[in-house]
Amino acid sequence: MEIISLVSLWFIPVLIAFILIYGTYKKVPTYESFVEGGKEGINMAFSIIPFLVGMMVAISVFRASGALDVMIDWMRPGLERIGIPAEIVPLAIIRPISGTAALGITSDLIAVHGADSFIGRLAATLQGSTDTTFYVLTVYFGAVGIKKMGDAVKVGLLADAVAIGTAIVVVTLMFG
Q1: Are the C-beta atoms of 44 and 127 separated by less than 8 Å?
Q2: Which entry of 21, 52, 75, 80 is 20 to 30 Å from 88 by CA?
Q3: Taking Cα atoms as reference points, which of 171, 61, 158, 63 lies closest to residue 127?
Q4: Residue pLDDT, tens place only, 92-137
C-alpha cells in the first residue's frame, strides 16, 4: 500500500519534469509552449461557458417547476409492479445531463435510505455505471464547433439506457 501512495504522490511531478526535459532536449521552447497552451485553455473555457449556463438553467427549471415530481408520480405504479423503486428515477433522468446534480441526488438517496439499502446500492451503481451524455456532448462538441450531434446523442442515450437496465438487474440479483 505504501508503494501505491508513493507512486501517486510523485507521478504527476515526475511526468511534468519528464515532459519539460524531453521538450528541452528536442529544442522545443517549453515555456512558450506552456503559455500558448494556457491561452488556448482560457479561450476554450470562455467558449464553453454559454453551453454550461444553458444546460444548468434547463436542469434547474425542470426540477423547480415540479415537472420531475409529476413525471415520477405518473410512473410510480408501473415501476412498483416490476420492482423498480420510483425514488431512483430522478437519478436515472438527471445522470445523463449533469454529473454534479446526479451526485447530489445520489447523496440524498443514500442519506435517506442508507448506503446498504437496495435504493442506496442501486443509486451508487447507477452513479458509477452511466455517463453525463448531454454534458459531454454540449461541452466537447460545442467547444470544437460540431453542430450535428444526432447520432452521438442516440448512441450515448442507448448506452445510458443499457447501463441503467444492467444496474437494476445486477443490483436486484445481488441484493434484491
Answers
A1: no
A2: 52
A3: 171
A4: 988 888 888 888 889 989 999 999 999 999 999 999 998 888 878 8
Whether this model's pTM surpasses 0.70? no
Written as one string, the DSSP assignment of 107-155 is: HHHHHHH-TTSHHHHHHHHHHHH---HHHHIIIIIHHHT----HHHHHH
Show the cell assigned to 141. 462538441
DSSP 8-state symbol, 25: H
The amino acid sitting at 70 is V
Tell me the one-letter amino acid at 127: Q
Q: Residue 98: which of 145, 130, 146, 141 has the closest Cα?
A: 130
What's the grid cell of residue 42?
482560457
159 contacts 87 by C-beta, under 8 angstroms: no
